[in-house]
Amino acid sequence: MTNLARWAGSTARISLIAMAAAFGVGQAYAMDPIADRPQPVDNANGTKARIAMIGFANNPYWVSVQKGVDTANEVLSSRGGEVKWIVAGANIDVPTVDQAIRAAATQGYNGIGFFIAGEGNCTLVKQMVAKDVAMGAYNTLFPCVEASGGVIDYAQDQVAAGKNAAAELIKAVGDKEGKVGIIVSQFTAPGSEQRRKGFVEGLKGSKLTPVNEGVEAKDSAGATFAAAKDFITSTPDLVALYATAGGPFGAAQAVKAAGKQDSIKVIGYDFTPENIAAIRDGSMYGATGQDEFGQGYNVAITLFNAVVAKQKPEQVLQPAISLFMTKDNVDQLDPAKLPVGAVPKL
């Protein structure tokens, strides 16, 4: 074959590819949507959807949420969507979240998902919706999200999760009488507080009683370790430690350091690598998941659909999948052993 013939053949192939792209023939997507999760609508009009997902970075939970966000970006990148993870700041409170939302709107994002720090965020949700910005929340269920015009609030039913954690602990301890040390994020953090109250309610009528109302650790594994160590040294009849928020593996490390894995049960939250490692080595009894990946992915896809097609799910307040992981089922629920983004099931 001559060089001219090769050039002519190559040119023809390039022309065919260009024509196919121009007319949408054989369109390829960067990544297929994940089964059993919200599916992106067909963006026939080529609407540009810019989605900001706002969170924080003070404990491993956020890594899992960001993974969901990044995966949503891969799925939507060839469908006219862009999803960006934004760290709001150091303080997890209503003003910090509001500031991050305003900044995202100023930067031109037409869909904004955010960690809801309290009902106070809903005032701004209403204002953003009035400006045609699709709004969605995650981590804690607040009816005001729906009332303010938000399209989704995907979060664990935290009170129910706390009650279930108490039931699992009672079952694990058996007929033994003893005290439980409670470690929270902050008493002003709504999700953590709902889990604490649900747990205390769930213990009523059993032989287990809280040492006190709880101590704050602000999602820090180091502070959780210190609080757990204090409970261990000051409470001879301690049978369990219950951590409501980030860093529960710190409590597991304290129990392991004291050599009390057999006598003190640690219960925490989130299917993070650190918690799973502690469950596998026996220093943590169990952890409740909240579909951390889905809090990033599901919210981002739903916001895309709202921007592109003005589509709103039938149910705005959506309780996240919340399963309890122990050594008995860890292999079934460990995200590292499942396809990316697979919905956790038992």
Automatic annotation (TrEMBL):
<feature type="domain" description="Periplasmic binding protein">
    <location>
        <begin position="56"/>
        <end position="307"/>
    </location>
</feature>
<protein>
    <recommendedName>
        <fullName>Periplasmic binding protein domain-containing protein</fullName>
    </recommendedName>
</protein>
<dbReference type="InterPro" id="IPR028082">
    <property type="entry name" value="Peripla_BP_I"/>
</dbReference>
<comment type="similarity">
    <text>Belongs to the bacterial solute-binding protein 2 family.</text>
</comment>
<feature type="signal peptide">
    <location>
        <begin position="1"/>
        <end position="30"/>
    </location>
</feature>
<dbReference type="InterPro" id="IPR050555">
    <property type="entry name" value="Bact_Solute-Bind_Prot2"/>
</dbReference>
<dbReference type="GO" id="GO:0030288">
    <property type="term" value="C:outer membrane-bounded periplasmic space"/>
</dbReference>
<dbReference type="GO" id="GO:0030246">
    <property type="term" value="F:carbohydrate binding"/>
</dbReference>
<dbReference type="InterPro" id="IPR025997">
    <property type="entry name" value="SBP_2_dom"/>
</dbReference>
<keyword id="KW-0732">Signal</keyword>
<dbReference type="Pfam" id="PF13407">
    <property type="entry name" value="Peripla_BP_4"/>
</dbReference>
